[in-house]
Recover the amino acids of this structure.
C-alpha cells in the first residue's frame, strides 16, 4: 500500500474553498482505493467541507490506524472558543509529529509553507501550485507576504509539480524557470452532480434570494475585480429594475464595499449570502447567469459548478478561464465595463443564446471529473516513488 501524508495547512486557514475541496475530493476518491492509504495530519478545523464528505468521515472512523481523528469546529465553537493561532500551532505540531514519525511514503502539502522541509528526512514530496497570482499582481498583497518566496523554495525541491491548468503551468515556467517536464497539468472538477437536485434552500437570515439575479462567488479582493463589476452593473440595473446581484461566500460586505454600493445607489440590489454546498447549488440553478470578472484564476472551479447546475457563465477572457470554459461560456474584457454590461444584456435578452450556453455548459462539465483528477494524481505519486 502506498501511504500518503497530507498536512494541515489549508484546513487550518480555509473555511470553504477550492483548495480544501481539491484535497477532500482526492481523499474521498482514495478512500475507495485499496492501493492507497492516507493521513490528514490535522487536529482542529473550521473547514465546512469536512462536514460534508460523510463517506470520507466514515472511512476515517473505519480505518483509524493510519487516518485522521479530526475535531471539526462547529459554528457554536467558532463563536465561543475557537482560537485561530492556538489551533494553527496545534495543527502544525500534529503535522510535524507525523512527519517525524515517518510512517508514510510520500508527502503532499496542502499549501506553500515550507516548514516541513526540516522533517522530511529525504522522503519525496509533491507540490500542487494553484496559480501565480502573487507573482502576477505583487502589489495587491500585504508587504512582507512570504508566499512567493515559499513557492520558489518548494518548487525547487519538489519531486513533481502539479499545475491545475496549462495557463498555470506556463506561469510557473515564466516566473520560476522550472523545467516543463517536471510539471504535470491535472485539471480539477465540480463537486456538483448535474443529476442531483439540491434540497430546497433553507431560510437564510435577513433575506431570501430575489427572483431575478446574477451570481458572483467567492472573495472580493482586488484581482477578483469586484469594484469593476459593480460599476459595470449600474447601467444594467437601470435598464432592468427587477435585476439583483447575489454575492455568495466571501463574507459580509466591508465598509468600503458598502460605501461603494451607496455611492452607486444600488445598496438594495446587491446582497451577500453564505455559501455551503446546498445553498450554492440552489443559487446557481436559479440565477440568470454566473458572472466571473476575475483578472486571474489558476483554474476556476466555479465555472464548472455553474455548468453542472445549468447556469449560463459570463466570464472574463483572461488567464485560465477560456481554457476551462471553452465554447460553453460568454466572454468579456475585464478591463472594459461596456464589454461586461453588453455580455450581461445579451444573456438577459436572448433566451435562445442562454439555452445554448446551458446546453454547452452541461456537455463541457462532463469532460472534468474528480475521478480523472485522482487517477492522474495517483500516477504522479507513483512516478515520484520510482
Amino acid at each position: 500500500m502506498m501511504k500518503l501524508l497530507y498536512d494541515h495547512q489549508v484546513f487550518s486557514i480555509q473555511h470553504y474553498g477550492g483548495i480544501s475541496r481539491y484535497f477532500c475530493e482526492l481523499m474521498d476518491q482514495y478512500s475507495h482505493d485499496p492501493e492507497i492509504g492516507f493521513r490528514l495530519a490535522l487536529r482542529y478545523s473550521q473547514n465546512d467541507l469536512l462536514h460534508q464528505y460523510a463517506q470520507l468521515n466514515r472511512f476515517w472512523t473505519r480505518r483509524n490506524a493510519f487516518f485522521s481523528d479530526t475535531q471539526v469546529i462547529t459554528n457554536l465553537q467558532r463563536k465561543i472558543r475557537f482560537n485561530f493561532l492556538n489551533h494553527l500551532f496545534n495543527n502544525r505540531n500534529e503535522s510535524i509529529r507525523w512527519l517525524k514519525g515517518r510512517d508514510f511514503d510520500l508527502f503532499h502539502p496542502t499549501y506553500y509553507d515550507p516548514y516541513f522541509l526540516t522533517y522530511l528526512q529525504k522522503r519525496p514530496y509533491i507540490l500542487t501550485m494553484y496559480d501565480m497570482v502573487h507573482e502576477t499582481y505583487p502589489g495587491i498583497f500585504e508587504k512582507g507576504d512570504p508566499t512567493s518566496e515559499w513557492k520558489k523554495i518548494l518548487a525547487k525541491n519538489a519531486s513533481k509539480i502539479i499545475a491545475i491548468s496549462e495557463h498555470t503551468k506556463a506561469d510557473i515556467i515564466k516566473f520560476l524557470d522550472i523545467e516543463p517536464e517536471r510539471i504535470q497539468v491535472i485539471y480539477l472538477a465540480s463537486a456538483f452532480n448535474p443529476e442531483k437536485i439540491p434540497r430546497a434552500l433553507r431560510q437564510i437570515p435577513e433575506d431570501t434570494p430575489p427572483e431575478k439575479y446574477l451570481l458572483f462567488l467567492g472573495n472580493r479582493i482586488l484581482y477578483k475585480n469586484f469594484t469593476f463589476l459593480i460599476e459595470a452593473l449600474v447601467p444594467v440595473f437601470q435598464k432592468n429594475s427587477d435585476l439583483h446581484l447575489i454575492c455568495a461566500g466571501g463574507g459580509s460586505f466591508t465598509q468600503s464595499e458598502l460605501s461603494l454600493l451607496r455611492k452607486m445607489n444600488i445598496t438594495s440590489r446587491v446582497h451577500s449570502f453564505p455559501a455551503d454546498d446546498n445553498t450554492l447549488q440552489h443559487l446557481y440553478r436559479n440565477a440568470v447567469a454566473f458572472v466571473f470578472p476575475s483578472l486571474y484564476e489558476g483554474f476556476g472551479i466555479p465555472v464548472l459548478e455553474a455548468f453542472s447546475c445549468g447556469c449560463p457563465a459570463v466570464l472574463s477572457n483572461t488567464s485560465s478561464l477560456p481554457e476551462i470554459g471553452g465554447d460553453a461560456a460568454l466572454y468579456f474584457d475585464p478591463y472594459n465595463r461596456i464589454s461586461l454590461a453588453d455580455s450581461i444584456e445579451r444573456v438577459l435578452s436572448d433566451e435562445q443564446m442562454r439555452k445554448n450556453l446551458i446546453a454547452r455548459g452541461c456537455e463541457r462539465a462532463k469532460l472534468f471529473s474528480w475521478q480523472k483528477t485522482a487517477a492522474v494524481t495517483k500516477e504522479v505519486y507513483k512516478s515520484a516513488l520510482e
Summary: Residues 213-365 form a domain with the Rossmann fold fold (CATH 3.40.50.2000). The CA atoms of residues 103 and 202 lie 44 Å apart. The mean pLDDT is 89.
